[in-house]
Specification:
109 residues, mainly alpha, Nucleotidyltransferase, domain 5, 3-stranded mixed sheet, 4 helices, RNaseH-like_sf, Holliday junction resolvase
C-alpha cells in the first residue's frame, strides 16, 4: 500500500474520517478484493485513529460511465473518457451515497 502518499494526503487535508468503496458481486457475495479492502480500511483506521466508512460500490463504475457518456453526448465533455475519469466520478458517487445515508455504511473494525 502506498502509505507514504496516503500520509501526505492526510497531512494536507486533515480528514475527520475516511470513506472507502467496498466491492461486492452483484449477488451480494464478496469479491476477491472484499477482504483486501476490509484489511486496508482496518489499517487506515489504526494508523490515523479516525473512523472509516465502507460503502457498497456495486454499480458505481457503471453509473460513472453513464454520466460520462451523457456528458460527451451533450457536448460538455470533448475528449475520450479515461479509467481515471471513471474512477473519479465513481468516487464522487460513493461519497454522495455516504453523505445521503451515512448509517447505511459498514464501519471498519
Amino acid at each position: 500500500m502506498p502509505w507514504a502518499a496516503i500520509a501526505k494526503l492526510v497531512q494536507e487535508y486533515q480528514p475527520s474520517q475516511f470513506v472507502v468503496g467496498l466491492p461486492w458481486n452483484m449477488d451480494g457475495t464478496p469479491t476477491v478484493l472484499t477482504d483486501v479492502v476490509r484489511s486496508f480500511a482496518a489499517e487506515l483506521k489504526s494508523r490515523y485513529n479516525k473512523p472509516v466508512a465502507l460503502v457498497d460500490e456495486r454499480l458505481s463504475s457503471r453509473e460513472a460511465e453513464a454520466q460520462l457518456r451523457d456528458a460527451r453526448a451533450s457536448g460538455m465533455k470533448k475528449r475520450r473518457n479515461t479509467h481515471a475519469d471513471v474512477d473519479m466520478i465513481a468516487a464522487r458517487i460513493l461519497l454522495e451515497q455516504w453523505l445521503e445515508n451515512p448509517h447505511a455504511a459498514e464501519q471498519a473494525t
